[in-house]
Amino acid sequence: MYKEVDARGLNCPLPVIHTKKALEAINTGKVTTIVDNEVAKENISKLAKSMECKIDIQKNQGAYYIDIFKDHSIEKAPAIDLECDSLPKKDLVILISKDRFGEGSEELGKVLMKGYIYTLTEVTPFPKAILFLNSGVNLVVEGSEVIEHLRNLEANGVEIISCGTCLDYFKVKNKLVVGGIGNMYTIVEKLNNAKNTIKL
């Protein structure tokens, strides 16, 4: 199967996101991504290597044509550290105070929260920080289904902060696998200094 991704003129990390989606959509075959800058070329090369795919790069009239050959199936590409000069960020802080989205069905709420955090990785500008407290800290510890997405956000410069008191309360501080630990002073300071906040 063959897919072409024309990512010329797109801001980082969109060339990588579109290429990743194209690669995940095929079991085997070739994806050709076209970019117009060195940074995007390097980031897509990192993505291909992380998926153990062979690549061939040609330059033509100021654009890079990156052929990525996929000869094995992989459900999701692993998170990579992007080398963007300046990833855009909103002056937005998101406060997540529970491990599910909305009221009603707990099972549905967890599915919705997973979808929300994944979608944050797909949309720019990114938030400036995401704060976790109360049962929300269960999203940043071992066993959470959103760790990969949070690591992706952190790699893109989003600050991930969890309430230390909450981690202690749920006895999961030693299972923290993404972001740092803060206290109520840190949380209040981040919220007060943000131009926009969202509370979930």
Automatic annotation (TrEMBL):
Stored InterPro entries: DsrEFH-like, Se_metab_YedF, Sulphur_relay_DsrE/F-like, TusA-like, TusA-like_sf
Ranges of residues in domain UPF0033: 5-29
Family note: Belongs to the sulfur carrier protein TusA family.
Protein's name in the database: Selenium metabolism protein YedF
